[in-house]
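Review the following:
>
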Amino acid sequence: MALYSAGQRVEGRYLQIKTLAEAQAVSEVLPLPNRLPTVLVHVRSPESWDVARTLSKKLLGLARTLTLNFATSQAIAAAHSGAAVPFGGLTLVWPALAANPMVIGAAEIRDLGRDEILRSLTRRLGSIAALSHGRDKIWATVKQADSEAHMRELLLQAETARDRSDHRGEIDALKRQVAVLQASNAELVEIGEDAMQSLDSISAQLTARDADLEKALLEAKTWRESYEGVVTNNTGTILVDPWTQIPTLTPRHNPEETFTAITDAAMDHIVFTDRAHKSWQDIDYPEPDDMTVKLVRLAQAAVALYSGTEQNMPKLDAWFKNEHNLTVALTDQTISKWNGKQMRWLNSFEFDGRTGLDATPHVKVKDAVKLNECGRIHFALEQEKYRLVVQHVGIKTYK
């Protein structure tokens, strides 16, 4: 049996908006009044993906979650400035774009985490849902109790950290208090503007909230000026070049942050398998900067190859070299001569429901050097989905 809310089918999963055509379709739907509130998430980090997965499941029936890459987020922002998503952050957009959006930046996603963000969005969505059906005293009572309990919990965390001389822990707890107070303050402002009639009551609540907020902000600012490493959040719409925001790979570390940022910048025209993650995480490659540069060039080549902008490509390996300064071999006699299952992980693997992918094509990151320095990026060309599928990022695995 299907469940519907506000005329929309309720599903516990996010929708991925990968193409400009899909972004245009979203832009056409956002002004409609008969839709659920929509959470737009620019997914370019493990934390933002974690938030998107959590919100899609936990906000079931309250909001629809959409994941965007850099290009689709920019396209939606160009169509509706009120739906602009900060780089690596999220925006909660109301039906018909009738009220100010709720914006959370990349720094908040990183610092607060999925549970805190879920709590904040649930509070806001619940308030508006209650008001759409009249003032709900039960909801208001539960919400107030939850908010007060949460503030007591954060206050205890700050006091415990202060007793232990854990300055960073205290700063984190204070920042979370500020976030809770800001969300509560914004919520009361929005309710007061859009639905509430008792202005005197709201004014009193806002005054009390403002006093608490000012005190928490002042204390947090003092600690921030005393200790390094506190990151301030910028949720403005400053145009960012996603290719300049890609973290450098670190040997023997999970490459997910780098791979996710590359996929985002390339509009999903390049993706990485679990095997690609493991191949990097298991080695001490001596030149991670160079490997990162070559991956970025390969991703930029994928965009040109599959976005329809490249008109003249007589020979693919020569095109890689001339246009993107990559030495690419599309075939390899050593790989092709292997029989049985020994190289099947490379020349006949499965990914995302597609079988028989062949990652014999590879970038020669370094050649004519010692084996532990001989870098390789193996990838399959998946024409049907307009993308490259990277299966190996590491050293040469055969002689």
